[in-house]
Specification:
2 helices; 0% strand
Length: 52
């Protein structure tokens, strides 16, 4: 992989959700918005996420 000199690659551990902030958002969504619900289409799912 060729990387420009002004970019530094930082490798994360194979499973490190605490180092990836989006994982905290997904956890909140799964526990508080998506739990115990069934969405028939992706459009209905997206709407549920938007209004939450």
């Amino acid at each position: 992989m060729k990387v420009p000199k002004n970019i530094k690659i930082i490798y994360l551990l194979p499973y490190s959700p605490e180092l990836n902030p989006i994982e905290r958002l997904w956890l909140y969504i799964k526990q508080n918005i998506l739990c115990n619900k069934v969405y028939n289409t992706i459009a209905v799912f997206e709407h549920g996420v938007e209004i939450s």
